[in-house]
Amino acid sequence: MALLPIIETPDPRLKAISAPVEKVDDDLRVFIADMFETMYDAPGIGLAAIQVGLAKRVLVIDLQDKDEETGETIKDPRVFINPEILEESEELSVYSEGCLSVPEQYADVARPAVIKAKWLDADGKEHVEQIDGLLATCLQHEMDHLNGILFIDRLSKLKRDIVLKKLAKARKMAA
Ligand code: NI
Prior knowledge:
The chain has 3 helices and 9 strands; from the N terminus they run αβββββββββαα. The chain has a 5-stranded antiparallel sheet. It has a two-stranded antiparallel ribbon with strand order 3-4. The protein has a two-stranded antiparallel ribbon with strand order 6-7. It has a single domain (12-174), classed as Peptide deformylase (Peptide Deformylase), CATH 3.90.45. It is α+β, with helices and mostly antiparallel strands. It binds nickel (II) ion. Nickel (II) ion binds at residues 99-101, 141, 145.
């Protein structure tokens, strides 16, 4: 397994429209394992392939809930290949989103609260499920990456500019 470098805004590759995966094979599964390792190391709860430079419709998510009694992290790795949204609720849910490609910056984004989605897992098996809560938000955020959209693109220009200014400042201080 290997850690992959994460691409950050304003790298133009993040604007790419990712292509569908034609074959779910061992090469892809190795890449997916590397994506999980990279995401856990970052750390983050979701990662799209384009964020590590591969313009394919693959994303990984692990919300890493904490067990309320023991405080231990419950791992729940999920792989979404060629995901599609079939239905979405009119009801929206607002969540303060962040992104490994826009490091340490957060802003409220409203998205459909409940979605029905279809995807393939790492064995190439098709799933159709209704999803809500943080997983629905996260899946929509990651699916945006497959279409070249960052969460900051869903903000007003004013709010986006504020986030980008804060990011520039943080990078300057880290340099
Ligand atoms: Ni992201």
